């Protein structure tokens, strides 16, 4: 019996992520491969990811107005979602009793942490709460990093910022700093459930890309194309900048659809590069898709 009202079973999670056909975690959450995450981290900008989502019909995938404990550093990983609700005594009593009967330990704000795996991003929605909003401080932040070796996106404030900043590699995307603590004022409603985070519907297994004040949630079935097109675009951009600096082509020529001469030049330039993260067949196939 489920002790959280918004906790999906494996079968439900598979049903609600039908476009994902790849590997899944035991609980049914889509598991985008490390290879795709690595490629996205190296080559894909949030701008590019947003455009890929938009072109595919996913209009509402970006949030603004966050702060980062690692300015300028991209946070990327697989979303593990946690939905919080305002505290109501009778409801919270049911949640706490059910969770403890099911083997959960301590307060409910620690329960999502126990489900984290390597490269997960703990995406917690506390409806933008600042005062009495933090669900992590120094201790729980260390527990998160020990399990995921990754960061968090929390739609709320954080506390114990001095201790959090000491965790090397822990990128915390948050709404502000606050000394109070959320536990007495909220209750956990679901783990690995669909949830609304302001203007975005976040699904478990989405690829999270966050940097400074901007967060993008890429549906898992778009991640492969996002990675491939991002890598190709990155190489095209490098080529374009080089050729414009050499004054071989004008900005107008580069910004328009490339002529056969420029495409041939690009292919010749590309042939002299090592360790290209895509094949020539993939490059040709990509020309049939809208890249931008």
Structure in a nutshell:
The protein is 35% helix and 19% strand.
Structure description:
With 292 residues, the chain is of the alpha/beta class. The chain folds into 2 domains: 182 residues, 3-Layer(bba) Sandwich (Glucose Oxidase, domain 1), CATH 3.50.30; 63 residues, no CATH class. It has 10 helices and 11 strands. The strands form 2 sheets. Strands 1, 2, 3, 4, 5, 6, 7, 10 and 11 form a 9-stranded mixed sheet that branches. A hairpin with a 2-residue loop joins β8 and β9. α2 packs parallel to α7. The longest helix is centred in the C-terminal third of the chain and has 23 residues.
Please give the largest β-sheet: 9 strands, mixed
Radius of gyration based on Cα positions: 21 Å
In CATH terms, what is the architecture of the largest domain? 3-Layer(bba) Sandwich
Q: Span from first to last CA?
A: 47 Å
Order of helices and strands: HHHEEEHEHEHEEEEEEHHHH
In the CATH scheme, what's the topology name of the largest domain?
Answer: Glucose Oxidase, domain 1
Low-confidence stretches: none
- The DSSP helix count reads 10
Mean pLDDT: 95
Strand residue content: 15-25%
Quick one: how many beta strands?
A: 11
Q: What coarse outline follows from CA principal-axis ratios?
A: elongated
CATH class of the largest domain reads Alpha Beta
Helix content: 25-40%
Whole-number total of structural domains? 2
Supply the helix-strand structural class.
alpha/beta
């Amino acid at each position: 019996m489920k002790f959280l009202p918004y906790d999906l079973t494996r079968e439900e999670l598979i049903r609600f992520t039908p476009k994902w056909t790849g590997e899944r975690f035991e609980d049914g959450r889509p598991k985008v491969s490390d290879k795709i995450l690595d490629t996205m981290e190296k080559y894909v900008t949030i701008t590019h990811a947003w455009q890929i989502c938009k072109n595919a019909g996913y209009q509402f995938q970006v949030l603004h107005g966050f702060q980062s404990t690692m300015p300028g550093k991209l946070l990327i990983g697989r979303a593990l979602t946690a939905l919080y609700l305002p505290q109501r005594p009778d409801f919270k009593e049911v949640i706490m009793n059910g969770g403890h009967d099911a083997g959960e330990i301590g307060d409910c704000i620690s329960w999502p942490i126990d489900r984290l795996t390597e490269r997960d991003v703990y995406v917690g929605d506390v409806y933008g709460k600042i005062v009495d909003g933090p669900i992590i401080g120094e201790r729980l932040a260390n527990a998160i990093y020990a399990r995921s070796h990754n960061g968090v996106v929390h739609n709320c404030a954080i506390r114990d910022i001095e201790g959090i900043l000491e965790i090397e590699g822990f990128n915390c995307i948050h709404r502000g700093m606050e000394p109070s603590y959320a536990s007495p004022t909220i209750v956990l409603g679901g783990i690995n459930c669909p949830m609304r985070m302001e203007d975005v519907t976040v699904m478990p297994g989405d690829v999270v890309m966050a940097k400074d004040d901007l967060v993008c949630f890429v549906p898992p079935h778009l991640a492969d194309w996002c990675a491939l097109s991002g890598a190709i675009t990155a190489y095209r951009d490098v080529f374009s900048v080089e050729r414009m600096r050499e004054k071989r082509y004008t900005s107008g020529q580069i910004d328009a659809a490339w002529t056969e001469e420029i495409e041939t030049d690009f292919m010749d330039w590309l042939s002299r590069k090592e360790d290209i993260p895509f094949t020539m067949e993939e490059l040709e196939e990509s020309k049939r898709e809208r890249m931008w």
